[in-house]
Design a protein that fits this description.
Length: 125
Amino acid sequence: MTNFVVKTLANAAALAVAIWLLKDITLTGDSTGGKTLALFLVALIFGVVNVVVKPVVQLLSLPLFVLTLGLFTLVVNALMLMLTSWLADLVDLPFHVEGFWTAVLGGLIISVVSWAVNMMLPDGR
């Protein structure tokens, strides 16, 4: 359970950095508390997407991973971020990613920041 909370906090921090750096990834809200709650809920959705959907997509696109020497990971990460944006819209969360190339850059930022945050946070085992 602790590991789940740590991963969700890392995702939230990574999403916050991507929102801060890229103007086409937005999180709107009335108050700071509302934005924080929305960010945490989006991080939960992002975590579920990465646990459930991403492995299936990676398996189905394995030849593309081999062909591009792993660079297709950027495309998969972008698609997971766009799927998160779509799911957040379905549940009325104020998170939106505008465009595929923004999602590619956002996915890259989220990957790097999430890795760095996970290195600093306790493992939770």
